Amino acid sequence: MFKWHGLAAGPQRSLVLEFGLYDAFSHFNMGAQTVLQLYDALQIPAGRYTEDGCQFLDAERTYLAVFKDQEQNKKRRKVLRGKKKRKEDKNQSTEGVTYAAGQF
Predict the structure, then answer these.
(1) Within-domain flag for 62
(2) pLDDT at 8
(3) What's the domain count of the chain?
(4) Residue 84 falls inside a structural domain
């Protein structure tokens, strides 16, 4: 299925997999700063753009979390979901079912 180019063969393959899993889980749990921690573990110096990018991504992530947690934004999303649902129901009642999974 996947073609290995000799970059990760034998014991290195499990090490690459381990770092990849660590990166995925830690990025989800702790944010983009874990990229810098992973680079440190691999003894790769991180550049200025990498550090700035990680800080920006983490700041954006926390801003969006706070924004989505505000009550007025929750109400607005709920209203918009309701409008979209009503429009979809109206279209479905006038046109009938135009798409269903597994039906052609």
Answers:
(1) yes
(2) 52
(3) 1
(4) no
CB 58 within 8 A of CB 73: no
Name the pTM for this structure: 0.58
Residue 57 lies in a domain: yes
Instruction: Give the integer Cα–Cα distance in Å for 16 and 7.
Output: 10
* Over residues 25-34, mean pLDDT: 88
Give CA–CA dist 23/29, Å, rounded.
10
Q: CA-CA distance, 36 to 34, in Å (whole number)? A: 5
Write out the residue range of the structural domain in which residue 56 sits. Answer: 11-69
> How far is Cα 41 from Cα 91, in angstroms, rounded to an integer?
55
**For position 1, what pLDDT does the model report?**
46
Per-residue model confidence as pLDDT tens digits over 40-91: 888 999 999 999 999 999 999 999 999 999 999 999 999 999 999 999 999 8
Within-domain flag for 38: yes
Secondary structure (DSSP) of 14-62:
HHHHHHHHHHHHHHHHH-THHHHHHHHHTT-PPPHHHHHHHHHHHHHHH
